């Protein structure tokens, strides 16, 4: 006999632990019971279904037969590619014919004698004798079916839950460290952040809660894998979206981002309403908004730049905090030649050329930095080949 109370608790427990709806768990159990019944009491080619009522404890079994007509059936001499799979519905969806088998098919004229409203491709269910005494082999079959169905249900749940969250931020607790890879508890599943998605120099401790950018969901045979990042440029954009309501309302827009994670990031922004100060919106009162983002990414420097459609003006702003005397645009080479005072050269170029490099990425223009006193001498250049956009 089935212990109704125990089974009901098991369904609820599995649902909570795996994050799977209770009806999916119950469906897996019903399929397992049907598989056990078939193993013990039915033919291999028969289709058996079971229904368990958690409220009443009633258990019912049926033999299911697909209603067919002559147009759906193969001739006797036709090759039967579908016979071994018994997956008749899939075959019919692919416009393939099936071979009639009385164990799992019934002709329409015969089905109408039992159910006058039945139609072709519908199932006719015949009641079977209730059986609850299953052998060890049948029970093992039921266990395997339950595990497989729960695995499938868990995969389906994870994909449906996180598919729409690609490109968003999620909060998670660091579960374990394997080499340089970080495994993160996301509540209903575990995400992974590979070494190349980590912010250089950032330390991670087990049990620590952090925010992560969802790169993608990779559906592997063993289950879906949630790929996470903290070094991706869009992570910065999404952090600002959570801190700055004006971005969500469309009043302020992030046009482009250039980032060298762990060191420095530049954002180009624009206001879609004249009365809105785009830079001020991201900085916040007394720097609270940008400060919250900087704290989350471990002190990485952030330059917030006002976007401009004029290349010269945009490049000059992007080279901040350096002051620019003059710019010369070379359109056919998509290059901007920038002249700065000698005492501003180090600021314009940045340590290791980082400032001019990020400025080139964020503007999309190649930048040639020169001294105002020696305009013919090329000092440093930055390439826009690896431009990073938010779109």
Layout: helices, strands, pairs:
Layout: H1 4-18, H2 22-41, E1 47-52, E2 59-68, H3 88-93, E3 105-107, H4 108-114, E4 123-127, H5 136-162, E5 169-178, E6 181-185, E7 190-193, E8 209-220, E9 223-229, H6 233-243, H7 245-248, E10 252-260, E11 264-271, H8 278-283, H9 288-296, E12 301-306, H10 311-318, E13 326-330, E14 335-340, H11 345-349, H12 354-363, E15 366-371, E16 378-382
Parallel strand pairs: 2-3, 7-9, 11-12, 14-15
Antiparallel strand pairs: 1-2, 2-4, 5-6, 5-8, 6-7, 8-9, 10-11, 13-14, 15-16
Helix pairs in contact: 1-2, 2-5, 6-9, 10-12
Structural write-up:
The chain has 391 residues and is of the alpha+beta class. The protein folds into four domains: 4-159, 2-Layer Sandwich (N Utilization Substance Protein A, Chain:P, domain 4); 166-229, Nucleic acid-binding proteins (OB fold (Dihydrolipoamide Acetyltransferase, E2P)); 232-307, GMP Synthetase, Chain A, domain 3, CATH 3.30.300.20; 313-391, 2-Layer Sandwich (GMP Synthetase, Chain A, domain 3), CATH 3.30.300.20. It has helices spanning 4-18, 22-41, 88-93, 108-114, 136-162, 233-243, 245-248, 278-283, 288-296, 311-318, 345-349, 354-363, and strands at 47-52, 59-68, 105-107, 123-127, 169-178, 181-185, 190-193, 209-220, 223-229, 252-260, 264-271, 301-306, 326-330, 335-340, 366-371, 378-382. The strands form four sheets. It has a five-stranded mixed β-barrel. Strands 1, 2, 3 and 4 form a four-stranded mixed β-sheet that branches. It has a four-stranded mixed β-sheet with strand order 13-14-15-16. A hairpin with a 4-residue loop joins strand 6 and strand 7 (190-193). Helix 2 packs antiparallel against helix 5 and helix 10 (311-318) runs antiparallel to helix 12 (354-363). The longest helix has 27 residues, at 136-162. The radius of gyration is 32 Å and the shape is elongated. The two termini are 60 Å apart. The model is unreliable at 80-85 (pLDDT under 50).
């Amino acid at each position: 006999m089935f212990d109704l109370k125990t089974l009901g608790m098991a369904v609820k427990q599995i649902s909570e632990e795996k994050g799977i709806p209770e009806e999916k768990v119950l469906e897996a159990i019903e399929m397992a019971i049907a598989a056990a019944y078939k193993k013990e009491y039915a033919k291999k080619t028969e289709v058996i279904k079971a229904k368990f009522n958690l409220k009443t404890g009633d258990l019912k079994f049926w033999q299911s037969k697909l209603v067919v007509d002559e147009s759906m059936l193969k001739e006797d001499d036709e090759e039967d590619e579908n016979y071994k799979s018994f997956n008749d519905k899939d075959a019919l969806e692919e416009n393939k014919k099936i071979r009639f088998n009385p164990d799992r098919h019934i002709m329409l004229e015969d089905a109408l004698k039992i159910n006058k409203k039945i139609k072709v491709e519908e199932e006719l269910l015949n009641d079977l004798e209730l059986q609850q005494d299953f052998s060890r082999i049948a029970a093992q079959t039921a266990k395997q079916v339950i595990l497989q169905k729960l695995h499938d249900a868990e995969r389906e749940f994870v994909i449906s839950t996180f598919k729409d969250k690609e490109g968003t931020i999620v909060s998670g607790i660091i579960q374990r460290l394997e080499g340089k890879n970080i495994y993160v508890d996301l509540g209903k599943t575990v995400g992974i952040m590979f070494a190349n998605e980590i912010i250089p120099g950032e330390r991670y401790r087990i049990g620590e809660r952090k925010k992560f950018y969802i790169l993608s969901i990779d559906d592997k045979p063993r289950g879906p894998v949630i790929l996470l990042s903290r070094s991706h440029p869009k992570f910065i954009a999404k952090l600002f979206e959570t801190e700055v309501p004006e971005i969500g309302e469309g009043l302020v827009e992030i046009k482009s981002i250039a980032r060298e994670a762990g060191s420095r990031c530049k954002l180009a922004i624009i206001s879609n309403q004249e009365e809105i100060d785009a830079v001020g919106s991201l900085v916040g009162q007394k720097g609270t908004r940008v400060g919250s983002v900087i704290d989350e990414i471990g002190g990485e420097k952030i330059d917030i730049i006002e976007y401009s459609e004029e290349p010269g003006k945009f490049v000059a702003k992007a080279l901040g905090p350096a002051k620019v005397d003059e710019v010369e645009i070379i359109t056919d080479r998509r290059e901007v030649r920038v002249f700065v005072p000698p005492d501003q050269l180090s600021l314009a170029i940045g340590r290791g050329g980082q400032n001019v490099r990020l400025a080139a990425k964020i503007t999309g223009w190649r930048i040639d930095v020169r001294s105002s006193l020696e305009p013919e001498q090329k000092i440093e250049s930055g390439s826009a080949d690896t431009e990073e956009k938010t779109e």
